[in-house]
Amino acid sequence: QQDNLLFLWSITVSIFGIGGLLGSSGSRYLTVKFGKKKCLLCNNVLMIVAASIMGCSKIAQSFEMILIGRFMCGVSLCVPLHHQYVGEISPKKLRGFANSTSSFFWSLGKAVGQISGQRELLGSQSLWPMLMASCGFPALVQLVALPFFPESPPYLLMHKGDQEGCKKAIRQLWGEGQHQAEIDDIMKEKATMKNTKILSVLELVKEPAFRWQLYMIVILTITIQLCGINAV
C-alpha cells in the first residue's frame, strides 16, 4: 500500500513536467499561427479549467482529477509566452526590466504557494482543494484584462505583414508620437530572420557552431536540478 501511494505521489508531481514538455514543444507553431495574445488567452482558459478540476477532486473523491489538472497546468504554464509577449509590447528602454519581471513573479508565486500551503493556512485537510484551485485566480485576472491589450506589434508586422495594425498597436501601447525607429527595428529583425535557418532540435545538436553554447546550457540546467528546487 505504501509503495502504491509513493508511486501515485511521484506521478502527481512529475506529470506537471510532462505537460510542460508538450506545452513548450508546440509553442513555436502555436504562436506563429495564432499569435501570442490568442495563445495567452487559451492558456488562461486552460489554467482555469485545470484549477476547477483540481478544486473539485476532493468532492468527486478522484485523485485522477488531480493528475489531469496538474498535467493541464504544466501545458499552460510552460508555454513560454508571458515573457515574450511582455517583452514585445514594452518600449525598448523598458524591455530588459519587463522581461525580468517574469522571473520575479515566478519566484514570488512559488513563495506564496509555499506559505499558503502551510497547515495553519490552506494546507489543512479541509482547505487543500482551495489551495489546488488558487492557481486559477491569476489566470482569471489575466483573462479579464488581456482583451484590452493589442496583439504583439512584432507579430503583426513580421508574421501577418500588417503594418497598419502594427502602428495602431504601438500607438495604443506607447501613446501617440513618432515610433518609426521601433518599426524599422522590427523590419530589420524580419529581414534577419529570413536569412536565418531555423534548426530542429536534432540539427541543433549536430551543428558544431553551437556545440559549446549547448554544453553550457546543459551544465546550467543540470546544476539547477541539483540545487533542490524539485524537492521543494
From TrEMBL:
Pfam family for this entry, one: Sugar_tr
Xref: SUPFAM superfamilies: MFS general substrate transporter
Top-level taxon of origin: Eukaryota
Keyword NADP: no
Subcellular location: Membrane
GO cellular component assignments: plasma membrane
Keywords, ordered alphabetically: Membrane, Transmembrane, Transmembrane helix
Segments traversing the membrane: 6-27, 39-60
Gene Ontology process terms (BP): D-glucose import; dehydroascorbic acid transport
Topology within the bilayer: Multi-pass membrane protein
Domain annotation Major facilitator superfamily (MFS) profile: ranges: 1-232
Gene Ontology molecular function: any one: D-glucose transmembrane transporter activity
Name of the protein this chain belongs to: GTR5 protein
Organism: Origma solitaria
